[in-house]
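[Discussion] Sanity-checking designs against the backbone

I'm trying to build intuition for which residues belong where. Below is a structure token string of 282 positions. I'd appreciate it if someone posts a full sequence so I can compare it with mine line by line.
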């Protein structure tokens, strides 16, 4: 059984305001047993409290976030400048996975650009593997785009076979591939899973006003863009089948994640997701 935890990006504001320790306590109280640290500084205070959380709360640090290099999408330590620190943090926390949350936007625009980026990932993944750390790449919908008939997913795997996947099932669905098909096709590569639901919201009444005003394109844009990030169990994802399929594909951690909570307290969203997952046996 994969370990169930939460993506701490959801609580970055709470960590900044309250500190890491009280946030970890609330996570543990919700019967969640792991965290993935993202968009939160890995400074000495936070690392020390994460270490304390592993000892006193039994909350495992399942993965830490890294970038390949510094840049606009790098929100924390990067492997080019902070390799030794990343390894030291991982060993201190007992963490076996590091994850790249997004490839640079410049790598998404062509096959050649993607190949260049993936080629830089391969030696970084090999260096981390020598330290007992598996480097994973987190997808978005763009990773289902094709260049010359080859998905970005496949380009990355071909060029960087030492790089594994953190599969965000919501983004797979949004990218137009059935998540069950994706898990089957990339079995053995999918080490981390983002458990995030896909909800189609109701049409905003403002769209009707726009149509009435003759602003057809603006109203249509509002109609098209009604997909939301949802609490697990409150969207249309088939979790009773997806979670066992994820385990079969090699998943070692499930991280609850919701990119936007639409005004709700993130802890309430996490609690709802946790309750649903418990209702189906997790």
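Best answer:
Here's mine. Compare freely.
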């Amino acid at each position: 059984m994969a370990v169930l935890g939460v993506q701490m990006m959801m609580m970055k504001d709470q960590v900044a305001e309250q500190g890491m320790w009280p946030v970890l306590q609330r996570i543990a109280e919700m019967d969640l047993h792991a965290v993935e640290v993202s968009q939160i500084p890995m400074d000495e205070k936070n690392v020390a409290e994460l270490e304390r959380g592993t000892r006193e709360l039994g909350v495992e640090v399942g993965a830490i976030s890294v970038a390949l290099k510094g840049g606009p999408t790098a929100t924390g330590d990067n492997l080019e400048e902070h390799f030794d620190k990343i390894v030291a943090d991982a060993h201190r926390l007992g963490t076996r996975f590091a994850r790249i949350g997004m490839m640079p936007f410049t790598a998404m625009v062509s096959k050649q650009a993607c190949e260049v980026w993936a080629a830089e990932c391969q030696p970084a993944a090999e260096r981390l593997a020598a330290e007992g750390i598996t480097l994973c790449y987190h997808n978005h919908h763009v990773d289902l785009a094709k260049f010359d008939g080859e998905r970005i997913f496949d380009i990355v795997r071909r060029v960087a076979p030492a790089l594994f996947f953190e599969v965000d099932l919501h983004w797979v669905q949004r990218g137009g591939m059935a998540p069950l098909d994706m898990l089957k096709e990339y079995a053995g590569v999918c080490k981390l899973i983002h458990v995030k639901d896909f909800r189609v919201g109701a049409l905003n009444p403002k769209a009707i006003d726009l149509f009435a005003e003759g602003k057809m394109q603006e109203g249509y844009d509002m109609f098209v863009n009604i997909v939301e990030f949802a609490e697990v169990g409150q969207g249309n994802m088939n979790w009773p089948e997806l979670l066992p399929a994820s385990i079969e594909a090699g998943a070692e951690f499930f991280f609850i994640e919701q990119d936007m909570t639409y005004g709700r307290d993130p802890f309430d969203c996490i609690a709802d997701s946790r309750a649903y997952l418990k209702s189906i046996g997790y």
